[in-house]
Design a protein that fits this description.
Strand content: 5-15%
Number of domains: 1
InterPro entries: KR_dom, NAD(P)-bd_dom_sf, Peroxisomal_Beta-Oxidation, Sc_DH/Rdtase_CS, SDR_fam
Distance between the termini: 26 Å
Family: Belongs to the short-chain dehydrogenases/reductases (SDR) family.
Strand order of the largest sheet: 3-2-1-4-5-6-7-8
CATH superfamily: NAD(P)-binding Rossmann-like Domain
Organism: Herbaspirillum lusitanum
Low-confidence stretches: none
CATH architecture: 3-Layer(aba) Sandwich
Radius of gyration: 20 Å
Order of helices and strands: EHEHEHEHEHHEHHEEHH
CATH topology: Rossmann fold
Mean pLDDT: 93
Largest sheet: 8 strands, mixed
Protein name: SDR family oxidoreductase
CATH class: Alpha Beta
Shape: globular
Number of strands: 8
Structural class: alpha/beta
Helix content: 40-55%
């Protein structure tokens, strides 16, 4: 499905990114395997993970090159895209997968913890997508696949930075899709459920938390790759601006914000009439204060 195509996968040194890079190569793509090899919190650097995935792809007869530039600044992102163009002659698909975690309850979160996570997830996706945009425009084709999260789409505890970045990423994807559809460029999101080092930071202090972690461990990163490869391919030419979730063998199309209910008052509203009329009328449609785990309660299929 990817014969003759060139793809970039960020954060591809392990976990979900690695599986996507391997499957893209298995389907004929030449792959730029980008990973700076940092810890889960974004510290340290190691070229080894990216190069190891490249060697796996080459051993299986595929084409790949390692990139260790950071997505968190515009210059690094430009180098990642340049690596694809210089090595393989073009760029067709981007999978924005790179990420770090700096979990903390909101009232305890530092400015550095906030900035670091947004820089990688949201700014990183913007920088890499923007660097590829001119190439996509000139060739009038291209596909972007962004890894979002139900932590942003639904909610989670202790992840204000990560949740904000991931929900922002879905809006970025929609804006890219709107702005670049005239050039046959598509932009979609996947919210993956899979055991990886990103998930390994979930605290396990109660039996309920242990059961949740045990469920997630059943959902391996290789389950995410097929949808990512499909969305990157020309087979998905009519799929644009959508948000999907993959949970083991389940694929969900996620809702996007639309009006639920409305109330009207011909004479306009006062704070008092809102309290007496508007809120009671709307309250039955309020969204619950739930987390991702509250919505996806059943065992993975």
């Amino acid at each position: 499905m990817m014969d003759g195509k060139v793809a970039i996968v960020t954060g591809a040194g392990g976990g979900i990114g690695r599986e996507i890079a391997l499957m893209l190569a298995q389907n004929g793509a030449s792959v730029v395997v980008n990973d700076i090899g940092v810890s889960l919190s974004g510290e340290g650097a190691n070229a080894g993970p990216a190069q190891q995935v490249v060697e796996e792809i080459k051993a299986a007869g595929g084409q790949a090159v390692a990139s260790t530039d950071s997505v968190a600044d515009a210059a690094g992102a430009a180098k990642i895209v340049d690596c694809a163009v210089q090595t393989f002659g073009r760029i067709d698909s981007i999978v924005n997968n790179a990420g770090i975690l700096r979990d903390a309850l909101f009232h305890k979160m530092s400015g550095d913890e906030w900035d670091a996570v947004l820089k990688v997830h949201l700014y990183g996706a913007y920088y890499v997508s923007r660097a590829a945009a001119l190439h996509f425009k000139e060739q009038e084709s291209g596909s972007l696949v962004h890894m979002t999260s139900t932590s942003g789409l639904i909610g989670n505890l202790g992840q204000a930075n990560y949740s904000a970045a991931k929900l922002g990423l879905t809006a970025l994807s929609k804006s890219i899709a709107l702005d670049m559809q005239r050039f046959n460029v598509r932009s979609n999101c996947i919210a993956p459920f899979a055991w990886s080092r990103m998930i390994s930071s979930i605290p396990v202090k109660t039996q309920e938390q242990q059961e949740r972690v045990d469920k997630i461990k059943q959902m391996t990163p290789d389950k995410i790759a097929p949808l990512a490869v499909y969305l990157a391919s020309d087979a998905a030419a009519d799929v644009n601006a959508q948000v999907f979730t993959v949970r083991n063998n389940e694929i969900f199309l996620m809702s996007q914000p639309r009006p639920l209910r409305s109330v009207h008052r011909s004479e306009g509203w006062s704070p008092e009439s809102i309290a007496a009329h508007a809120m009671p009328a709307l309250k039955s449609s309020f969204i619950a204060l739930d987390r991702s785990a509250d919505v996806f309660q059943w065992d993975p299929i």
